[in-house]
């Protein structure tokens, strides 16, 4: 029987993957499509006529498989930026990536204006070490233009044997002209959760939501509570900045880790009977200690589910700048030996019923991170609303997201320092700690 996997994320990971961020996932039977109308069949006949004319009369002999794949990609890209076709190899690679390991450069990308746009470099990967930044546009690969390639084709060209080199040509906002960056490919092992004690505060950074994420968060809390004496531990900082998303199941599990009860998220498809609600089970891994969640313009999808759930339940205070605003859910639908379809199938809603599509999560406390002089004017605000063909917001004004910059040095990180000061009582803000009486009714 054909099955499908549900995910939430932005872009495509360069390496042995073809979709943004994935999870061990929820497997569901595929629903049969509605019968096509007679007018639809007439249009399909038109497609067949054009296909045969191209095969017989084009100046050079085209490859049938390439024509079909290009047609499919054209159909899907016209829907929204997150729907796409996964050829068999990309589908197999995606399944490997859900385990948190893939080969490549270590950047997450999407396609914009016919070039590859960097959504986010992954921590401690060749791309990040080479200085690739969120928002960079890759216009050439080893001197060959990206324009004219599909996203999958561009990703394929960026793959290669471990220790082999590739030259990517970068167009950066504010730079005078494009420049080359040489990167050596490596096997990328994603540790989606990292943690450390910040004296009397537990700091937990989640870089993406793969099948290891919930276990990583649980391990982080256990080790931080063992390392910081109970009478000194002030609370936790959950850093979701520049986290592009991942599997719906893992976003739910991480949210559930800090909630005793209540709805976490709901998803609504085209039909009323497709609505699903996911609720928390009893048990708070942090034992009620204060939590501050950090977000910015690179926090998308699964990150926004976690931030929205804990914000609506007043379990955590959200600090930073407006998140990316990707409020849609994609489903991976296997197509037998022909790969898979990555299709937007639902919108998701926070416990308070908010759709954040093209709007994002507004922080309870806004702290804008200053850019260093060398990046001033070279990075712009990022958000779902800026993507061509995005699903429109259901109501209200669309927003453009925010900057997605996080300093490498802790002392320069104004958002983290503000969170630490709030937890230690050095700073005071009426949004912290959050008022439980204002939480969504359970």
Automatic annotation (TrEMBL):
For biological process, the GO terms are: proteolysis; signal transduction
Please give one Gene Ontology molecular function term for this protein. Answer: serine-type endopeptidase activity
Q: Which GO terms describe its cellular component?
A: outer membrane-bounded periplasmic space
- Entry keywords, A to Z: Hydrolase, Protease, Serine protease
Could you name the domain of life of the organism this protein comes from?
Answer: Bacteria
Asked whether the keyword Ligase is assigned, the reply is: no
Q: Which PROSITE patterns match?
A: PDZ
- Family that this chain belongs to: Belongs to the peptidase S41A family.
Descriptive protein name: Carboxyl-terminal processing protease
Lineage from the top down? Bacteria, Pseudomonadati, Pseudomonadota, Alphaproteobacteria, Hyphomicrobiales
């Amino acid at each position: 029987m054909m099955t499908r996997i549900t995910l939430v994320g932005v872009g495509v990971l360069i390496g042995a993957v073809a979709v943004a961020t994935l999870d061990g996932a929820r497997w569901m039977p595929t629903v049969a499509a509605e019968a096509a109308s007679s007018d639809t069949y007439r249009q399909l006949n038109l497609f067949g006529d054009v296909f045969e004319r191209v095969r017989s009369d084009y100046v050079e002999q085209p490859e049938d498989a390439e024509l079909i794949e290009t047609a499919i990609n054209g159909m899907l890209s016209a829907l929204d930026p997150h729907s796409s076709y996964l050829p068999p190899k990309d589908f197999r690679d995606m399944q490997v990536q859900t385990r948190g390991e893939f080969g490549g450069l270590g950047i997450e990308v999407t396609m914009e204006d016919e070039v590859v746009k960097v959504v986010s470099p992954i921590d401690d990967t060749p791309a990040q070490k080479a200085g690739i930044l969120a928002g960079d546009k890759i216009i050439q690969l080893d001197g060959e233009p990206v324009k004219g390639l599909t996203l999958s084709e561009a990703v394929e060209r960026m793959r290669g044997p471990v220790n082999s080199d590739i030259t990517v040509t970068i167009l950066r906002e504010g730079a005078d002209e494009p420049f080359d960056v040489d990167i050596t490919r490596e096997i990328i092992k994603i540790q989606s959760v990292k943690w450390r004690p910040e004296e009397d505060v537990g700091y937990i950074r989640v870089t993406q939501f793969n099948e290891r994420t919930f276990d990583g968060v649980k391990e982080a809390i256990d080790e931080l509570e063992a390392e910081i004496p109970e009478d000194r531990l002030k609370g936790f900082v959950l850093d979701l900045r520049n986290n592009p998303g991942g599997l719906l199941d893992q976003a739910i599990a991480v949210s559930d880790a800090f909630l005793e009860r209540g709805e976490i998220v709901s998803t609504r498809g085209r039909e009323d009977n497709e609505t699903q609600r996911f609720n928390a089970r009893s048990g708070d891994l942090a034992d009620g200690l204060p939590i501050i969640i950090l977000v910015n313009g690179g926090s998308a999808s699964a990150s926004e589910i976690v931030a929205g759930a804990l914000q609506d339940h007043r379990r955590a205070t959200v600090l930073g700048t407006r998140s990316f605003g990707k409020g849609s859910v994609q489903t991976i639908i296997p197509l037998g030996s022909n790969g898979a379809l990555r299709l937007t199938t639902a919108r998701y809603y926070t416990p308070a019923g908010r759709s954040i599509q093209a709007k994002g999560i507004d922080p309870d406390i806004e702290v804008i991170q200053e850019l260093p002089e060398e990046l001033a004017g070279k990075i712009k605000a990022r958000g779902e609303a800026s993507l061509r063909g995005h699903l429109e917001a259901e109501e209200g004004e669309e927003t453009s997201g925010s900057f997605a910059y996080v300093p490498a040095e802790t002392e320069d990180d104004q958002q983290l320092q503000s969170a630490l000061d709030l937890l230690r009582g050095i700073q005071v803000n009426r949004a912290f700690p959050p008022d439980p009486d204002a939480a969504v009714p359970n």
